[in-house]
């Protein structure tokens, strides 16, 4: 009880000093809990949607996906004859069976040719209005579609794009462009996460999406009373045979959830990883806080020992304070986490993904995990200072002394740090000289961990040297004030090292990712210059999208073009000369001019020969694995087609970056074995202008394709810019998440300075008494803060660039051979670190300047 009272008294006596440490715990716990609540809420939203929209049993074509996705490389969804509906109705236990048509391969535009697609990446669905959809959607305005000139639109899309009843829209499919006017608005009775949905009448949907009537993509089956879904499924299979895909509502929902889960897990674990980094940074803050509090209470601790307190009691007293800090910070963090989750939901709403707070899900495991993490991390971080406090001798009460420094421990720490750093550098060296990227990545990971831990451990040793150098470069110009700031930073190298290390971690990751991202862009740009010999690249902006035939015709009819090359991907099963069967392979089918458009290095033969009749190419690794040489025959069974015997005329190098690992054949060869109805649409189209006509051809292509906004034409400059922007957006998102760790590190600098000012109260009073002005005092503290921040930045940027350079060596094994250091970014981060130091010192410097001189001198 005495220990608890002492801990409570000390905790609340230093509540201001504990606040910043509590904020660090709060932020870290909030990020963890916010991530878990957000992803759980998304799971709940989609679970409710999948369960509400699935019929008891769903019948679809055999080649349809388990999720019911109705897109394909042909641009047409897989279909079944309308007679299936009658057969299903005749099955035992069927109350109702209704055929429907849906596709996610359509592009919908308004009268200004602006896309009416979700910005969140959710699908655009065009289909027939049916009874199953009527269960989860309510017509809130107008009427359902009743003819070819009418379309009903979901309410979210209407609101987002400001549509009104009577507005004309265009639905672009492989069949052509269908025009209709909005006849009604349907509102979801469950949460719609963001899909844009357009309903036509059944006959119009068939004609628009498939090009013919009398077919369906799905049959929704409702069970009679008392019939389970599993039993109904067995009865339907008995009636239809095994030529169709038959799934219960639970199976369809599970397949959809599995597909969604892979995306959510990436998001979830990435965000938790950044929260872990923030926790790691917070550990340094907590260690510093308790180390300084213990140092300031040396006399008090000594007196406690002198009147009979044991080492364990003193140790326990400090740990109880840490426990209080952890509990308070974690409880607040859990509450803040729910707020962060709601904020993320609102943010996703601005991006087009609608998540309702009605589905907000806070599982009991979330606050439990948040509290456990926060408390455990805080107590563990406080263990070393608590142990140090227990070692304070009773004799310390008789003198004004801090906890004794252990010189031997410092030497051991330095030796351990040097060994760890040396091991990390050796691991990075092995990674940089690895022959295979997979093997090298393991060494890279080990090197990153060892060098990071090593730099943390030898932080005090590095602080002693680097701060002196920084003092010469930055502080001496400020005269005596600068020299005092330097001495203050050097006074406790362990504290300076720990504070700098907290900032180092976040900046090291920033520098590493900047080097990797910049090198990827530079390498890809260099490779494009070397290999791409065409002027324009036409592709669909929809993820995994294909180019509709009318767009290809528009390209071919564009004046000023010398050649146009089509490029497709086909799924195939290969049987090689060694008798082995390779399933799920892809054949890159293109026009013979592709060999001019993309200059691919070969190790045997000429790539142009692979486009001869009944010929193909394979890549080097595949050839070596299966004993394939020039002239070998490979049996290729095309999905949706027949089997071809193709002669290998070229073997491409594994060093290629563009189409690495591709196997080529001509479109004319493939067309002999794949019926036209099953032939995939073009994934890319390459166009080369006539000599001197590049600008005119570029403008003409833009004009020719403006009617289909899902298709984009880019010249090489546009393509490089798009690549740079894509990587830049990813890096900016990562930098945003790393900002949490940097914020915690800044709090650490603030806390260190604030406690340092309290620790030096008498000293500050004496300096003020002998003539140091308030302005000089504040400058001294600001300069001390700047030099600590710059010290951390130098460590972080140096370490991060080393990691990034090593990672680039591994990327070079995959063909990305250019190392590019983004000096503008590195310089901006370095300069920004100095401003971070200035910002962190504002409050401590202001408080120091307001000290009463006499009271400060009289401080015990």
UniProtKB/TrEMBL annotation:
Topology with respect to the bilayer: Multi-pass membrane protein
Listed transmembrane segments: 269-295, 318-344, 364-386, 407-431, 443-475, 496-516, 733-758, 783-805, 825-846
Domain ABC3 transporter permease C-terminal: 274-394, 737-852
InterPro entries in the record: ABC3_permease_C, MacB_PCD, Macrolide_Exporter_MacB
Short name of one Pfam family: MacB_PCD
Domain MacB-like periplasmic core: 19-236, 499-702
Subcellular location per the Swiss-Prot or TrEMBL entry: Cell membrane
Keyword Transmembrane assigned: yes
Chain segments carrying region Disordered: 61-80
GO molecular function: transmembrane transporter activity
Keyword Transmembrane: yes
Gene Ontology terms: cellular component: plasma membrane
Keywords from the named record: Cell membrane, Membrane, Transmembrane, Transmembrane helix
Family: Belongs to the ABC-4 integral membrane protein family.
Protein name: Membrane protein
């Amino acid at each position: 009880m005495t220990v608890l009272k002492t801990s409570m008294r000390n905790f609340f006596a230093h509540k201001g000093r504990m606040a910043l440490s509590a904020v660090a715990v709060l932020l870290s716990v909030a990020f963890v809990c916010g991530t878990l609540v957000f992803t759980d809420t998304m799971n709940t939203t989609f679970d409710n949607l999948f369960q509400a929209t699935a019929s008891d049993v769903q019948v679809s074509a055999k080649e349809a996906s388990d999720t019911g996705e109705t897109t394909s490389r042909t641009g047409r969804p897989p279909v079944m004859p309308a007679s299936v509906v009658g057969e299903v109705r005749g099955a035992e236990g069927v109350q109702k069976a209704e055929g429907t048509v849906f596709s996610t391969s359509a592009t919908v535009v308004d009268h200004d040719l602006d896309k009416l697609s979700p910005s969140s990446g959710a699908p655009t669905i065009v289909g027939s209005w049916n009874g199953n959809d009527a269960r989860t959607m309510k017509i809130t305005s107008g009427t359902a579609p009743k003819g070819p000139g009418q379309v009903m639109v979901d309410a979210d899309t209407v609101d987002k794009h400001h549509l009104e009843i009577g507005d004309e829209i265009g639905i672009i499919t492989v069949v052509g462009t269908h025009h209709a006017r909005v006849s009604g608005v349907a509102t979801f009775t469950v949460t719609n996460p963001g899909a844009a949905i357009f309903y036509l009448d059944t006959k119009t949907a068939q004609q628009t999406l498939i090009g013919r009537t009398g077919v369906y993509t799905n049959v929704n089956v409702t069970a009679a009373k008392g019939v389970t879904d599993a039993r109904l499924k067995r009865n339907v299979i008995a009636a239809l045979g095994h030529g169709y895909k038959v799934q219960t509502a639970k199976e369809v929902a599970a397949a959809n959830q599995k597909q969604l889960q892979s995306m959510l897990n990436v998001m979830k674990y990435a965000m938790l990883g950044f929260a872990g980094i923030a926790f790691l940074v917070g550990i340094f803050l907590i260690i510093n806080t308790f180390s300084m509090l213990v140092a300031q209470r040396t006399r008090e601790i000594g007196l406690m020992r002198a009147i009979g307190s044991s080492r364990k009691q003193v140790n326990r007293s400090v740990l109880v304070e840490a426990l209080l800090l952890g509990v308070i910070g974690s409880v607040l963090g859990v509450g803040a986490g729910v707020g962060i989750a709601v904020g993320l939901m609102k943010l996703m709403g601005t991006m087009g993904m609608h998540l309702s707070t009605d589905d907000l899900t806070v599982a009991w495991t979330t606050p439990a995990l948040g509290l456990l993490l926060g408390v455990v991390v805080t107590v563990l971080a406080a263990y070393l200072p608590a142990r140090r406090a227990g070692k304070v001798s009773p004799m310390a009460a008789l003198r004004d002394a801090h906890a004794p420094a252990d010189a031997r421990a410092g030497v051991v720490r330095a030796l351990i740090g040097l060994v760890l750093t040396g091991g990390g550098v050796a691991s990075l060296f092995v990674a940089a000289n690895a022959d295979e990227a997979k093997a090298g990545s393991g060494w890279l990971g080990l090197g990153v961990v060892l060098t990071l831990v090593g730099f943390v451990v030898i932080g005090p040793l590095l602080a002693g040297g680097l701060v002196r150098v920084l003092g010469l470069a930055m502080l001496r110009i400020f005269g005596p004030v600068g020299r005092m700031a330097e001495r203050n930073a050097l006074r406790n190298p362990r504290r300076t090292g720990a504070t700098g290390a907290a900032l180092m971690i976040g900046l090291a990751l920033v520098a590493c990712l900047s080097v990797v991202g910049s090198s990827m862009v530079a390498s890809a740009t260099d490779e494009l210059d070397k290999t791409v010999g065409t002027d324009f690249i036409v592709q669909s902006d929809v993820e995994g999208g294909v180019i509709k035939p009318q767009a290809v015709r528009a390209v071919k009819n564009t004046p000023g073009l010398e050649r146009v090359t089509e490029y497709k991907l086909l799924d195939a099963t290969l049987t090689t000369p060694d008798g082995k069967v390779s399933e799920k392979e892809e054949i890159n089918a293109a026009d013979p001019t592709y060999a001019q458009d993309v200059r691919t290095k070969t190790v045997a033969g000429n790539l142009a020969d692979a486009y001869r009749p009944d010929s193909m190419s394979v890549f080097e690794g595949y050839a070596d694995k299966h004993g394939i040489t020039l002239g070998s025959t490979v049996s290729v069974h095309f999905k949706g087609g027949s089997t071809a015997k193709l002669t290998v005329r070229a073997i491409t190098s594994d060093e290629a970056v563009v189409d690495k690992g591709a196997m080529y054949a001509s479109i004319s060869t493939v067309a002999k074995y794949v019926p036209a109805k099953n032939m995939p649409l073009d994934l890319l189209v390459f166009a080369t202008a006539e000599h001197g006509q590049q600008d005119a051809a570029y403008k003409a292509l833009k004009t020719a394709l403006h009617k289909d906004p899902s298709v984009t034409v880019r010249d090489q400059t546009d393509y490089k810019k798009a690549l740079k922007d894509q990587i830049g957006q990813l890096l900016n998102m990562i930098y945003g998440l790393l900002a949490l760790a940097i914020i915690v590190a800044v709090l650490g600098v603030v806390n260190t300075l604030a406690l340092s000012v309290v620790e030096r109260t008498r000293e500050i009073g004496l300096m003020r008494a002998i003539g140091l002005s308030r302005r000089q005092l504040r400058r001294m503290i600001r300069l001390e803060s700047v030099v600590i921040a710059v010290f951390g930045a130098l460590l972080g940027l140096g370490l991060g660039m080393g990691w990034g350079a090593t990672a680039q060596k591994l990327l070079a094994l995959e063909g990305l051979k250019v190392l590019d250091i983004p000096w503008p970014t590195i310089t901006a981060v370095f300069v920004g670190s100095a401003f971070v130091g200035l910002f962190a010192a504002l409050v401590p410097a202001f408080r120091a300047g307001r000290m009463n001189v006499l009271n400060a001198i009289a401080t015990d």
